[in-house]
Amino acid sequence: MTYEEHAYQGGLVPPPGCPAHRAGGGPGGGELLRLFGPEAEADPAGFYEKLRAEHGEVAPVLLHGDLPAWLVLGYSANLTAMRTPSRFSRDSRRWTEFRQGRVAPDSPVLPVIAWQPTCSFVDGEEHRRLRTAVTDGLNRFDRRGMRRFVTRFSDQLIAGFGDSGRVDLVSQFAEHLPMLVMTQLLGMPEEYGPRLVEAARDLVKGTETAVASNEYVVESLRRTVERKRSDPGQDLVTWLIEHESGLNEEEVLEHLRSVLLAANETTSNLISETLKMVLTDSRFRAHLSGGQMTLPDALDQVLWDSPPFMLVPGRWATGDTELGGRAIKAGDMLLLGVAAGNADPVVRPDLDTPLFGNRSHLAFGSGPHECPGQEIGRAIAESGIDILLTRLPDLQLSVEESELVWRGNWMSRHLTELPARFTPRSELYPQQAAGAAGAAAGAGTGTVGGAGALASTPSAAPAAPAAPGATVPGPRSAVRPPLPPAPPVVPPQRRGWWSTLLARLRG
Ligand code: HEM
């Protein structure tokens, strides 16, 4: 019996652990592949090509808990799924696996696919109402203003390691810059920045402290919203509160949370991968300095070859339909294979051909849900890298390229470190050395308490969650003013984020 027959005959889907999932279950008689675990995560590109060779444009795969899904591999099939919401909805409550109670409460897919009241999970008129509030707000930031923020925070981060001549560009630069800038766009006190970086990093790692980290993020946002109601400003929090779409309290908070997290993880990844390309690929360094290739070109090449989201979960079929020659049943889940679509031989017969100026990659999605923050993400990455290369012109990798290591999961993969060296430049920003301590010392040591040194607006910050591996603050923390006393992160009577989420799922 084929996978489809077994899975969908009479609407029945085999329970997790069913042998049909393991042997002879694929349409070609082959074994169905799991989208998680060592094989898929060690070499995602090779894994996608193996699937493409066996199944073509759309492949059946298994998610954690052996939940079935369709991975869209073809460029054009991805565009169809993204641009046809009448057939492929964003509403995860349609998923057959949810409806039939087969998703375990602790399933690692839940944090990304459990339905939330945000523009990411709705279609049609409701999507337009919610998304307009976000896009109207994001569009009010001009590029020059963004560049000012990026310059300030890049300089602070560089000052934190500039006198040492050595840096890990992932943990001391790329993982910090986007969140520091985003706190400014949201109108949050600067002191929240470094702690939010730690909480956001912890949250996506899915560790045992992930729920506490998420609550820290939500509580920081809740306090900012409360403050902005009585003291509005020129920031996204104020604009969401005041928008004519009339977002309620929960919608404001959920959109702020998803903007913050969507922006942070993706932009950090884009910065790391672009820096890696600039430092390891001699063509790029030569082209950049010779003016043949611009930094925006390098960013686009990375968005084609190493998109920050390798796949986007997901879309859910509104009725029985067809995609890439596959019979898709109502309620099936589609995973949009952004990285696989970008490497589709139909659109890129030779992956080595440079794609200067070509922005038709799938990295930001397409259709009604296309990323509304792409200009901001690009601006943070481009300005940040530009400032780094300008301040440290002899920056170079301090390990062999072959020693670089990526850590991955089913949705994305990240460089764990990008060690580099340069001529020490302590003379550049003596006035910022203290200001950099909070961000850069925290970056270097994994410290979560490095908030005070960046603070300019006195305001109570919620207690930071303990990140795994958090260290005692290093010597630089001595220059930080003590944090104000913190109230409990989540008042006892308030329902936890996770239980709210599960309640929603269960309808
Ligand atoms: C460079 C980094 C970024 C990448 C690669 C990226 C990628 C994406 C992708 C693939 C989607 C899903 C599209 C779909 O479902 O079809 C998305 C949605 C979204 N992104 Fe981004 N993003 C980035 C930066 C940002 C930034 C900086 C912000 C906010 C300032 C942001 C806010 C959002 C929001 C709110 C959505 C949901 C839109 C909707 O469902 O209507 N993103 N992004």
From TrEMBL:
<dbReference type="InterPro" id="IPR036396">
    <property type="entry name" value="Cyt_P450_sf"/>
</dbReference>
<feature type="region of interest" description="Disordered">
    <location>
        <begin position="1"/>
        <end position="30"/>
    </location>
</feature>
<feature type="compositionally biased region" description="Pro residues">
    <location>
        <begin position="481"/>
        <end position="491"/>
    </location>
</feature>
<feature type="compositionally biased region" description="Low complexity">
    <location>
        <begin position="456"/>
        <end position="480"/>
    </location>
</feature>
<feature type="region of interest" description="Disordered">
    <location>
        <begin position="456"/>
        <end position="494"/>
    </location>
</feature>
<protein>
    <submittedName>
        <fullName>Cytochrome P450</fullName>
    </submittedName>
</protein>
<dbReference type="InterPro" id="IPR002397">
    <property type="entry name" value="Cyt_P450_B"/>
</dbReference>
<dbReference type="InterPro" id="IPR017972">
    <property type="entry name" value="Cyt_P450_CS"/>
</dbReference>
<comment type="similarity">
    <text>Belongs to the cytochrome P450 family.</text>
</comment>
